[in-house]
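User: Show me sequence and structure for the first protein, then do the same for the second.

Assistant: Starting with the first protein.
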Amino acid sequence: MKTFFNFLILCFSASLLAQTPTNSTVVQNSLAQKTKMMNTSMVKNIEFTNIGPTVMSGRVADVAVNPENPTEFYVGYASGGLWHTNNNGTTFTPVLDNSPTQNIGDIAVDWYSGTIWVGTGEKNSSRSSYAGIGMLKSIDKGKTWTNVGLPDSHHISRILINPNNANEVIVGVIGHLYSPNPERGVFKTTDAGKTWTKTLFINNDTGIIDVAVAPENFNIMYAASWERDRKAWNFDGDGNNSAIYKSTDAGTTWTKISDNSGFPTGDGVGRIGLAVFNESTVYALHDSQFRRPKGKTKKPSDALTKEDFKTMSTSDFLSLSDKKLNTYLKNNGFQEKYRAENVKQMVRVGTVKPVDLASYLEDANAMLFDTQVIGAEVFKTTNGGKSWKKTHKDYLDGVYSSYGYYFGEIRVDLQNENGIYVLGVPIIKSKDGGKTFTSISRENVHSDHQALWINPKKSGHILNGNDGGLNLSYDDGENWIKLNDPAVGQFYSVYADNQKNYKVYGGLQDNGVWVANNNARINKQWQASGQNPYESIMGGDGMQVQVDDRNPNIVYTGYQFGNYYRINRETGKSEYIQPKHTLGETPYRFNWQTPIHLSKHNQDILYLGGNKLHRSLNKGDDWETISGDLTTGGKKGNVAYGTLTTISESPFQFGLIYVGSDDGYINITKNGGGSWTRISNNLPQNLWVSRVIASAHKKERVYATLNGYRFDDFTTYVYMSNDYGQTWKNISNNIPTSPVNVIKEDPANENVLYLGTDNGLYVTFNQGNSWEAFANNLPNVAVHDVFVQPTAKDLIVGTHGRSLYKTNIANLQKMTEDVLAKSTHVFGINSIRKSRNWGRSWSQWRDAYTPEINIPFYAKSNQKVTVAIFNDDVKVNSLEIDATKGYNIAKFDVSFSKRGKRAFEKKNKKATISKAQNGIYYLPKGKYTVKIGDAESEFEIK
């Protein structure tokens, strides 16, 4: 018995500690489960409205242009789906919304048949490069989609269709981002995706990042392998197995051609991009992670740099002139208290060492741009890969910074062998085969370039996809048109203030922080007024927002790695407020998405989480650290790790605070940081704590969600505790498998919770015993954040790929146990104001103005119901509705039926009912009752 008990403990411990990549079969079953859920969901009729923005877009993954009609093309966004235009980008239509995913790595179109291929799962290997579900195919231009294989590929880099045989397709697969797997390499189908053959495989850690074909001969193609290993704390984007391969039989067999050819080999070989001009002439763009040789040239001045302090002795430091040291301290933003005289004294007594003046500056954001690698370099072969030669002598500084893994695309103009384009932070071009380059980035073109199409029949006509959307040029990049019509922003966070006409705020990937009125019209009218309803208030990667309830002009927000500001929108003044470690102290670690929290108990009090929790009592002007390290302590790597990710203070008690970390810790303090207790020991370990939420309904209650995305673990982790986290209850229940990003409690109904995953949005009416999927005008997209505006009773949804959505949840808040037990229930109906314009058209060119009211009701089962409208005891109209189980809306045009008009006139003999211009008789002013079975509600025509 003891042995059996020990076995149970061992199994339990293993379940807490192990992060296992989710099997693709589980994912496929989960997608089928979600489809079924959406069809039967009690909230499937709750309609969402996209509220933009469109002025700032999202990351483009690929474009496919009709070679015979270049005004028709498709655009694939990294996490925003596939969009089609046939008017040169004036408008776009989404064509992937009825598929199980919006995550795209590459697209290809057979323009003769209209068949579309989508390789799902982004290729860039960034923090938010979402995994895909294999190859999707549509033979009806996007009306329906079929998964045709490679479900465990996760990330697909390239698709090539044989122009002479559309059933023959080559696919480059990078494979899992955070774990090894065998379904990576080059795959080939000759039967339109019914079966696949793996024709090139290196190992479980090396995939194919690019495949390019000779334009005149499909048999000749080149492939680039990429060895990469990403962890939550480190990214290794280079290795011996990164190389170039060639096929002469349409991808059936491959030969490695980069060894002993002049192309770099070894551990420092990073991501490789390919551009083929003809069978023999190929360009390769290499992200070299080899270190630059130490320069022999002298520094341009004798000014101190942080590198000087890394090897400086104490005696040499003390001999520095105060003027020279003060210049370094001031130029590098040291706090005012650190000036030459007192810093030298600190060194004399041993409080700090000279090296501390270097490490003081080395936070994660600075390290991101502090590169010593070679970076981007271009190679060319003119003999089919037998030999390669670098095209340029100088470094291509500024093209990649230190994150070349995020780019890697190169293109060649098929009209000009020497015309090439390199995509990086800027986009640069060369007209001399890569010897020299010029930038074609312009003021209306976003940085970070991901995709480029060059018209093969007309040089200078190019289409550029970047992190800010899509740009079109007809003069080789000298001037650009911005084609940002789709709402495909990648939001990290969303917030709404408490004004009557409240404003919505949100932080976007690489597109800053934006704000607009919640009821702003998202159309092209702003192009006439010159004023877009959305306003940018912060650059960088936009992060969390908090707004002072007393003064909505005071906004706290920032960009990546904890760089936060207090902004006064009335005066335009902003103050940098990030807490700073003291000289000699280990620098604080800040998460990419550093959390902040403005106390509801006192709006002068702001919390900000690094690896420790910091509190300001004066709006961020000064800080005190109210905890030790609340993480596992970090890990060695090039990604900030061991950081806080979420903060929540109980509205019941000041100083009752929960925090969660990216390495799985949840801690609580009940005394404002005086002491802390870890409450996550009985939860699965080492996972990202995506949310911890203190309940507004019960002091002891807390919710937590964990996210295993960074282990390729897509399990749904959702928990609730009613005893301050001493014990936890798993409330994920019937949620389809997908990493969880956010949970929020409804402010009016304690049983209602909202939950966002990497594949959609859910609601529960019973504290997580069962969940319902939202589906109406809300695609299967990653939901990063949600916010409930309590006065307007609106739910704002921040998606990472389809911008912001809004819906009113007033009636959902009323779906109590009593309501759910009824056969039918009619909710409150908004009144309407009578207008003489009902049924009237302003001109012969416009449709008549027709009124409409929504009659919201609940039905316990699928049933046909009669919606009867009465004036006193006179039935003036009725509607027959096929109601579905759950929430329904009947739309009523406020008109009489023929029988209803006669009955009304019989009882109200003095009433005059006039026919409107459109031939309809509309109801007069008065109060009306709506009845569905025994349930009823009222509305008024005022």
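Switching to the second protein now.
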Amino acid sequence: MPTPRTRPAALFLATALAALGLTATTTTPAVAATVPVGAGSYSDTRPPGTSGPTTNTGTPVTPKLTPAAQGKPVPTNDWWSSLAFQRYGDNPWSTPMYGHPLTYQATAAGLDIGYPTTPAIVGEGRQYEYAHKRDLTLGLTGLNSPDTKADAWSDWTVTPYWSDGARTLRTTIGHGSPFVYAKGSGGDARITTASAPTVFADQGNVLGITVAGHHYALFAPTGTDWTVSGSTLTAGLGGKDYFSLAVLPSPDALTTYRKYAYSFVTGSKVAWSSTGGTVRATYTVTTQPQEGTQTGTLQALYRHQWLNTTDALTPYTYVSPRGTMKVRESATFTTSQRAAAVLPGLPKSSGVDPARLRGYLAEAANAPDPFSGATDTYWTGKALGRLAQLVPLADQIGETATRDKLLGLLKGRLQDWFTAGGANEFSYDRAWKTLTGYPASYGSDTELNDHHFHYSYYVYAAAIVAQYDPAWAADSAWGGMVKTLVRDAANPSRTDTAFPFLRGFDVYAGHSWASGHQGFAAGNNQESSSESTNLSAGLVLWGSATGDTALRDLGVYLLTTESEAIAQYWFDADQQVFPSSFGHDTAGMVWGSGAAYATWWTANPEEIHGINVLPVTGGSLHLGGEKAAIRRNIAEMERENGGPAVEWRDILWEFQSLADPGAAKAKWDAGHAAYTPEAGESKAHTYHWIGTLDALGAPDATVTGDIPTSAVFTKGTVRTYAAHNHGSTARTVTFSDGAKLTVPARSTATGSGTGSDPGPSTGDTFQLRTGGTLTTATGAAAGSDTIASAGGANHDGTPHQPLVYEARGVSGTLKAGGATAFRLQVDAGTTVGLGQQARVSYDLTGDGTFERTETYHYFATDPVTGWEEYNQARGLKSATGALGDLKGGTVRLEVWHAIGNGTGKLQTGTDRSVLVIPYA
């Protein structure tokens, strides 16, 4: 068994991070009161001898808030939390905060602002960072504030506050905002630059300057004027209280940015929905004009956002640690994604021998100590998760006695933790408005770290119990305590006065943050993204089991959103995020400033790669959406490890099975006899997982069901549809390719789809034929066409020697809300660095003029021989014109290499390579 994780035994990070002392003082708490919640309870005072939030030297701290913010739940674990959580006694302002594209740090004189555009590779090549470096400071003349406090916040913006008695300053900053909005009193607007600025535009109250190669615009009220004196720039406010600045993508963008300089962002909010296998999220900022009537703004979208929006974007871009950010000229934008699949467990299959599984289950259920001596929240959670994974498997093979024994173990330990006054309990901190489990671990008490990691296991285990015992999950029984943990870690309410909205999850960044205080030079961080998604999957299952559709849909939104962020920022799925000088294909940790091939406790490659996989559950299927990234990940792990996995072999076998089930099965067959399971795993679960995927095939993320608890698996050309119905009556699940599956009440079912072809209907579905034809005919022989090399040049967005396929004389009525879809099987062979790109064009009347053209983001193939699927889920890169009814029109598909230096193959003549047009 691997050595238990201990933080911070070794950081294996090279950035000059702040000290990580975990020393805690113990003070005598007040007399505790028990707060009943259904059949359970928590304490309103932490247990004797324990600590709450402290500085790094152990001094207790309370939130650093203005009077206007006092009493409001503080969103710890955010990109800006050091404004409110003073981790270091000698820094009452903040540590560096990474908003992207801008970076910030509060000081006595105001707000330091930077725009890092050049990555540094540090720590013997283990980390890349776009570290905060001050370009300028925004403040007021004479400002010398003894501290900075959080004055207001919204979903992805925050307002820091400075006051020295004579002067006050408030700024509003946020993710994706190129602007900093300032309101001040008692002094003139003052900008001090790190080096002498170059003025490229002087329009009186609007000044364009360049500092360290970065272009900024300064905006004072109309009628005022900026004065430049060396590196100090000042402007009187003319009786007003506002000014702003913006980082410009180029000097010629000044006119556009000036238009929105006085439209101050006052709040930000995301709204989400999950319907029919599609997750939509709308991101909106509210604004208030300080002069004029303009209420629009500019927002920079992260890669995971612009890949999944069809909203119009400007040509403006920014550099960030998450790859290119693209600018939208609007106060709102919407993303749309296929929902990530979740199942309580993998379904029954021919790949699992019931007798063998029965033996493994008995071994786990009858262990002398099923909880392996765990006492704290994290390791207890791991044990709960391990046992919960086995319940559906026992039920699947009719082992009801084992199933019920496992359920009894889960209930007993959950109820123990859900009852105040014993050796373990949850305690509420009134000042920080958080619920902490004691015994705590890894700074979950003193730093408010990792609540979403720890509590994910409790919610997941409770969801499995609820599936089999709904009465246990009632609010009047133990469900109320489960929801209380959810309120702490992933509260969907913005009006709850006891807990903050989505404590750990950053809706704009697309993922969670682990540190409660964010007190590092590199910003906040998250190591185990998979333990974060474990909470999201737990919410899907809990909401489905209890009929709480709001929590279920919250889980779907969180899981689907973070799945894309993980693919892009931890696994660099498209190979467009990590700097070319960073010699790794995966990151163990993501930081505000970049990412690191590291963990908090070891440099062992197996654990660097495995920490973003565990725990492996029915909520892990989303990882199978990026099979090329999995293959690169496993290959790198084996290179760095000097061979296949040993310590966490089960986790990494299961991970590999999401892309190459046969290869994973071969490793299991060769190595299962003598290994120790990872602490959250068991031989029963690993055997079932690998055997099932070997039989059914890897998850197919291109098809979704119309309920969250559904999934599709593909082996060769055969699809298997699976779904779990938590309801009390049978229901039919419809999948996005038209397949249907009837699922009995409170059961998991699998099937091939009732009378349906595993592809779209032929009326709107065109197969590719060698020779350049698109046809609705079927039954042709499989073939392939060669995609010409890009010749080492970049042809992203512009066809270069494309393969062209056309259907002429096409008529049809445009479906309301319809959109183009395609599935193209492509293969790069063993060539590295190829990217295939598709363009679909519609000539509505066949007159030779294409009224609508859609260019999709290219697909980066892996250098492993075998077909991979490129589909419209890569997202639109650009689109022109509008669709209308087809009347004898022409539909054209073009496929070419956007990047790379080698040829590839495109499959033809099969129902696996098709174009689907939105017409009836």
